[in-house]
């Protein structure tokens, strides 16, 4: 296991249930964090709890190119390099095809696929200069196994998996590693706005999902965990 002490980490989506828990774990391990999130108030709360200076935060809509560019510029004003990039941002729209609108579909693609694309365009060049780094995305189980009502969500997450696998092929002559984490059924605010009957008490807890990401950040330099699946024992889809 590699130490996280002194590592420069960009955590996108730090205001979500999983992201906030990850931030606390990484901060307690000595990582130097730069945090982003859509909600400024929550972002300040997470940063304060983790001892991260406000100048190392950025309120970000990941689907907006100019915002990602501005965040990248601010990041490199504060941080000399990016050792680990963790993307926990995204949205979940679960609707049947009869109720799924074009706006729903495009919003899913913008936040879950186009946003990660913008992150890669913004930060891969710096990683390529040093020829090292770790990128962690969370396609979720629905990026491997579709579910009724998840046409838009699965489309965006399958696309994310394909994009990252293709990028991995481009990086074979470097030590830049890519990990896709397939989480399924995590009890987080993700479900607060989804009109679907689910047993949240039987889901994986956000803190446990965060520990998985924290573990993946400590992968040995001699290898890579290209994929990991974590899902509730009673709700296995894979």
Task: Compile the SSE list and pairings.
Blueprint: E1 8-12, H1 17-28, E2 32-37, H2 40-50, E3 57-59, H3 65-78, E4 84-87, H4 102-130, E5 132-137, H5 151-170, E6 175-183, E7 186-187, E8 204-205, H6 206-216, E9 227-230
Parallel strand pairs: 1-2, 1-4, 2-3, 4-5, 5-6, 6-9, 7-8
Q: Mean pLDDT across all residues, rounded?
A: 91
Total number of strands:
9
In percent, how much strand structure appears in the residues?
Answer: 15-25%
CATH topology: Rossmann fold
Low-confidence stretches: none
So, CATH architecture?
3-Layer(aba) Sandwich
Q: What series of H and E elements makes up the topology?
A: EHEHEHEHEHEEEHE
Query: What's the name of the CATH homologous superfamily?
Result: NAD(P)-binding Rossmann-like Domain
How many domain units?
1
Name the strands of the widest sheet in spatial order: 3-2-1-4-5-6-9
What is the rounded Rg? 17 Å
The main sheet comes to:
7 strands, parallel
Helix/sheet category = alpha/beta
**What is the overall number of helices?**
6
The CA-CA distance between the termini, in Å, is 27 Å
Shape: globular
